[in-house]
């Protein structure tokens, strides 16, 4: 039986699980590939306290320059070092498998150009336990993809679920996520939408062959959300989720990551806790939804090894979904300008509770061509969650002696330019006490 | 650019859609494979009234014996003729793609043996729009699969959904399904569980390398279900679904198709109408759920063409998930004897409403070692759904002058032998007025 020797760079939770799974499940891995896949060497910055039974080294070149090693599995994290590792592996004609979404968000097209036929696998880079890369590339490949909408970050979904189920506020739910190991000590990338954006960019390359960049798309996180928003959503039969969205209209692709209100009876709304799910609509296949673990050691290892096995089987699918350059397509897909994106919107305004305020606000919205669909007023006293956590207090000093209320409203469809313009003008009003908070309403149709 | 000529045998709803999609989406299909795929010829029994713009013939050999044809797509239906077509295609070294679950349920291992490296694709044979074959074979291949549980038949799921949402009885819901085109004029295979069983056998080959046969597994359909059963399920927080189930315990594989009560908050319980979904638990990846259209022309065409494209890309994955014979695995998986299967059970008994009946029934259950978890008594007068539709009336003549009631009960875990034995004995009681009806309760854990 043919043998493939693999070096694992980065022996943390995922790396350890990759090594153990290659050993534990060696029976089926050989039976399903016809190849013996051997975890030959682990590379780690510090080789103490590693619970694996293979040789370890601290020297990258022991893997990258070793002619006995056929394949490099990169599980280091970060952007620059892994990119250097990838380039060196490709230069030395070693297959390369990675779980690194951030590196691919920035460098996937450079790797595609540099690899010259050497296989690259990255199933584990998007939603650890969901084989969404292969689903898009191999399963749905006959379709023009009309949209991708997904819960792509387990940490933020856990926090949103806690806030929704227990009325916890953001800070409390975040602490719970950290205590349970769902959130890093520094959870910034998870919470500000960046991690989801990295994944969305990778999926867009597969579905649309588009070389979109992090800096060109709307990326918003889950900060700023308060229980009053969730209450409003529930009363209007919505759930609130952080979605990565790709939507194709004509030749324009609308890419964005932000909080959404979605119909509470939809499958996506049922995806709770640290789980992930991605809904894809193809022009022929209609809607499919793919649900599974978003992270975790053995879950991610499962995807890493599916790539190793694919390479062992000697498959030759294109790395980013397109064999020929996407330029050769009759219909070239371009990124839609952010301003043209349209949606329904939910807006939370904290305002002075005095006569005439609503009329001023409604007037500004009307000037921007925005019509209100529903409106609720709710008390916003000093004990409200928003105040406890000091969300962007603006003019609270000068308005101290007036009661404040929340105006919670939803709009009919309008453009991003309209809502952003209106919100900016509203924020300038003396009657508006803190920065307006907005969530887009996705009907999922 | 390399060219592949495809002949489509069977130009019905799916065949027409395959031809049209190959033409409509030719841009992305070429970009994603680097190959020009041409629908060259259609074969149909009757070539009148076909809405495709390619040459048609009624002679199979125009495709099978034509050296210009590289690939045969079989969309005929049935078992024997398609199997003969497959054998001839393989003999002539033409790649073979099929959507035919029945033929594969009986002949998949013969095809695997005969093909000698010629590619065979059958993504469309299981749950039309869900790429579950590729998910199992390529995405989850690092895992020992612990269980597969799925809603694999859209017609029966539509009927169950209607019964649940509108309290319709079985006959009415079936008629609705037929009016909407979800059910065939002869819906036998959909309703009696056979269609789901065919799909389950195919998935089991991929997941376990097991050559199980239709006649060796439990196959039950949705007939006999009445609104009282659904009411009981709702009151106990269950939904009723027809599931195909594969569960591995040690070296034994438990394969079966039957109605199940499942927790109403589970993702599977939310799968309504004609949609399909399959939950797979892998030892490393945990649970994943894959949801999409179960049938339909363009949905099935999407999967057929994903196979065509895979072959065009020249992939060499094993046909049934295992390269080497599954005998070479250390742990050979064997089919579990039906009798050893254990579960919780729901039982509906129609009985005479007279003192002492419950005691007699409880006594029989106790003798068989079955303990009751919950029990409800409900009126079963002449206007009940069961009576309207004459479900297995047995001794109604001799008991005419007594009121009858339903006893609806759920049991703790027991074996199939126990429940079947007890039900048989209960049916023999004069007090039991019709054949006992049973549904297994799956906790989905």
Automatic annotation (TrEMBL), chains A, B:
UniProt keyword annotations, A-Z: Amino-acid biosynthesis, Methionine biosynthesis, NADP, Oxidoreductase, Threonine biosynthesis
Entry GO MF terms: homoserine dehydrogenase activity; NADP binding
Catalytic center residues: 199
Pathway of action: Amino-acid biosynthesis; L-methionine biosynthesis via de novo pathway; L-homoserine from L-aspartate: step 3/3; Amino-acid biosynthesis; L-threonine biosynthesis; L-threonine from L-aspartate: step 3/5
Segments forming domain ACT: 346-440
GO biological process: methionine biosynthetic process; threonine biosynthetic process
Binding residue positions for NADPH: 101
UniProt catalytic activity: L-homoserine + NADP(+) = L-aspartate 4-semialdehyde + NADPH + H(+)
Annotated coiled-coil segments of the chain: none
Positions annotated to bind L-homoserine: 184
Sequence positions that bind NADP(+): 9-16
EC number: 1.1.1.3
Record Pfam families: Homoserine_dh, NAD_binding_3
Cross-referenced InterPro entries: ACT-like_dom_sf, ACT_dom, Asp/hSer_DH_NAD-bd, HDH, HDH_cat, HDH_CS, NAD(P)-bd_dom_sf
Residues spanning the membrane: none
NCBIfam families: PRK06349.1
Family label: Belongs to the homoserine dehydrogenase family.
Name of the molecule in the record: Homoserine dehydrogenase
Organism from which the protein derives: Helicobacter didelphidarum
